[in-house]
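Treating backbone geometry as a discrete language has practical consequences that deserve illustration. Part of our work consisted of pairing the sequence of a single chain with a tokenised description of its backbone. What the numbers capture is local backbone geometry rather than side-chain detail. For completeness, the protein is quoted in full, as a sequence line and a line of structure tokens:
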Amino acid sequence: MGSLNQEAGLVTKVCEIYAKISKLESLKPSQDVNTLFTELVVACIPPSSINIATLPRNIQETRSKLIKLCGEAEGYLEAHFSTLLATYTNPLHHLYVFPYYSNYLKLSKLEFDILNQHYLVEQDVVPKRVAFVGSGPLPLTSIVLAMYHLKNTEFHNYDIDYSANLMASRLVLPDPDLSQRMFFHTTDIMEVTDDLKKYDVVFLAALVGMDINDKVKVIEHLARYMAPGAMLMLRSAHGARAFLYPVVEPEDLQGFEVLSIFHPQDEVINSVVIARKDSSRLEVEHHDHHHKLGMGSILPSSCKYCDFKAFNNPLKKMNNIIDDLAMDD
């Protein structure tokens, strides 16, 4: 009974915050925007047994609208700080000014460790080319991986927005290393075909396909054109965090063998999923995406990540961050 009351309280809280966010005149960084989204994140971070899929239709609709608002606000936040960073002589030396940079460091390290377990160890070789789909104006995952973890790898960033790529490229251009290894492509990933075969690993951003049906279409496209045996890494969400990001289930990954799914229990919000393009099939069969995979294909091959220690809590400094982010348009 207590669990049901907690879930009801959570849903009520999220709906109240959504009502306030939806009335904002702008989602660009400001005191009101930062306060409300911080309140939303704080409400959704604690571990929860809530099953988003079982919620009433009206709550599902509210959740879908909220995810889109989160994506829009995130885009504005990244664009603002990308513009700010571009004012420095070498922007990559000042990435710490982005308030969530430490979270990206931790999440990227986690993703690299998972990739290391399933790709580098098995292949005994570092990926030569990595694609990041939905890189945005502040491609921190690509930058952090290139700077600290995959120091000889090419990174090809795909975004449909030309202005986002322009802002991102300005951050990398002054750096003598990354400017030679990081490339930006302005195109719809659904129009990229043979080029996808060039990549050893493809990262899919959490907000590419904010509606799960759209995301499944992207996954099916990647399954059709990625090289057999190549890795797909994507971000999902679990429990109450599904109010912030779309949830990708194993059955959504037709054409891939799901190797591991890691659900953080701390302030790193996104779940991490790694899958391998099925090397036994060059063509993807068109199944309904609700078709179930066998349990053997969805269980992590190692419990290594169950033992991760809790990350430092970035919310302790949230009040200072809110003050710092308060700004005029």
The beta strands are 129-133, 154-159, 182-186, 201-204, 231-236, 256-262, 271-277.
